[in-house]
Amino acid sequence: MAKGRKDFLEDIDPKDKRKISKEGIKKALKVFRFILPYKWPFIAGLVFLALSTSTTLAFPSLIGEITRVIEGNSRFKLNDVILFFVGILILQGIFSFFRIYFFAVVSEKASADIRRLVYNKFISLPISFFEKHRVGELTSRITSDVSAFQSVLSLTLAEFFRQVATLVIGIGIIVYISWKLSLFMLLTFPVIVVAALVFGKYIRKLSKQVQDKLAEANVIVEETLQSVSIVKSFTNEKLESIRYGNAMTDTVKLAMKAATLRGGFITFFIVGLFGGIVLVVWYGGGLVESGEIQLADLMSFLFYTAFIGGSMSGLGDIYAQIQRTVGSSERILEILEEDSEINLDQEVKKENFQASVSYEHVDFAYPSRKDMPVLKDFNLEIKAGEKVALVGQSGAGKSTVVQLLMRFYEIDKGSIKIDGKDIREIDHLSLRKNIGIVPQEVILFGGTIRENILYGNPEATQDDVITAAKRANAMEFIERFPEGMDTVVGERGVKLSGGQRQRLAIARAILKDPAILLLDEATSALDSESENLVQEALNELMKNRTTLIIAHRLATIKDVDRIFVLDKGKIAESGSHDVLIADKKGIYANLIRLQFDKTASVINETVD
Question: What is the third-level CATH fold of 22-336?
């Protein structure tokens, strides 16, 4: 059923009801500061814009002069006027070329600067920021929003100046030609202007909603492509197709609403404009008959009127574009005004850690779930060079302990110290430079094997890379590839097996040479052969390092110095494997039994 006007307006999100206000313009101008390094090309573009507009405004006068030649009332010959016409056309082409070129210089370079700055801001923000924003949404900020700003610099701004100049100068000229005819013509303008403001207001809101819906659709595409193996394994291709189809349907609906408004406005504008022109011709014809103005002046007047009408029509679209840019500028500034956790320009110093670690009365809850504490009065002491393991049920806080040591999040209470120094007094980059991590789910970049290993230390030599690969038991499979170290691993390392990815992650950590090593059970998802190779590589990596292991398969941590059992955000038990297993009623012993029973059940089912 068709919606009424009230329903239609209620569909417009209240948060999108932004106007071009003084505050909005101030925010937009903050983004325009990026054109300051290119002010001279920008000024040159404005000069050529003024020259281009001047030559354009000469055309109606030339049309009038040609009419005078035909009537025999001109001191020029027809060939002279035509030659002058051709000269104006050539100048118009030259001026337009340089106008486009200089504005392109400004828009491309300023937009590249903004994209670099936004990207640098992204990678310097804390993990908590990315938990509140989806990747597709952030990608839209660095693509769609910057593109809107770029469009304003390259086209909209130039057109705005051109249309305003055409409007102001054109009105001045027609008033000079005939104030009576001008007054008659200008009586139709207020109605058109009011209509432009009303229609433009709703067109702007809908245009922004269309942009936001496209951003949501981009999120679906990005999530689907990033997790395409999961989509296919669950045979949910149809589901994802429907999700994206629904998003595009919503986008089309909004776009059609906007198109309907634009169409209605254009229809009204055309009828009003050309109806006005007919009236002007009628009234002007009467003035010519009475001898108040010449036919040539009427012809020039009509062409100037058409130019003025075109300018008014263009200003409506330009207004909507500028409004959208104000919104885009605000979203860009929201990102740029976020507090970074690191300074990309500072020199990173790797401090020499003895690498003793202590957690003292630590309380912590994730920023998005402040009402659900993860760690409560948590205490843990790890000696330099000691190898310890954290075990416990899912949700006990094992991964949180590691994330807090990396300062991915700031603790709510207590302190975490390395060599007796609070990590909040240590720069993020210096801290993380001394910590290496091998996660359970290894994430590789889509480049070559060499590039992925070098990620641990971009300044390492080729010999260092080969040595790290050998120590990680990775050379045996690298040498089997025809391209060797130059083998492209594919998106997220998709061309490699799980064991191969793990060994590259270990090689990367070896090349980093950290004082503290964090292992999120790196062998839990591997087959027996790969597990043995990875375990050998891990043993090599753990030599002479303080090592904290998050253990899922308890059989792999028998040889660590101490085991800490977490329960409900606290250390419930600690000791060696033998000591903890001896306590038959303890949590650790119960976890061992549960894993043993599960393994035995799997073996029995296999035998059966």
Answer: ABC transporter transmembrane region fold (1.20.1560)
What CA–CA distance (Å, rounded) separates 1 from 287?
53
CA 162/CA 46 separation, integer angstroms: 10
Asked if 456 and 508 count as a contact pair (C-beta separation under 8 A), the reply is yes
Output b/e per residue, 139-175; b: 16+ Cβ within 10 A. bbbbebbbebbbbbbbbbbbbbbbbebbbebbbebbe
CB-facing half-sphere around the CA of 462: CA atoms within 13 A: 3
pLDDT > 90: what percent of the chain?
Answer: 5
Can you tell me the mean pLDDT for 200-210? 74
| Distance of alpha carbon 292 from the chain centroid | 62
Give the residue extent of every domain in the chain: 22-336
What is the mean predicted confidence (pLDDT) over 179-193? 73
Mean pLDDT for the stretch of residues 477-499: 84
| SS3 per residue for 505-548 | HHHHHHHHCCCEEEEECCCCCCCHHHHHHHHHHHHHHHCCCEEE
How many other C-beta atoms are found inside a 10 Å radius of the C-beta of residue 327?
22
Instruction: Report the range out of 179-193, 231-245, 402-416 with the highest average pLDDT.
Output: 402-416
Instruction: List pLDDT tens digits, range 45-81.
Output: 989 988 988 888 888 888 887 887 887 777 778 888 8
Burial of 579-592, coded b for 16+ CB within 10 Å and e otherwise, reads ebbeeeebbbbebb
Sheet of 421-422: strands edge to edge?
375-382, 357-364, 413-418, 421-422
- pTM of the complete model: 0.70
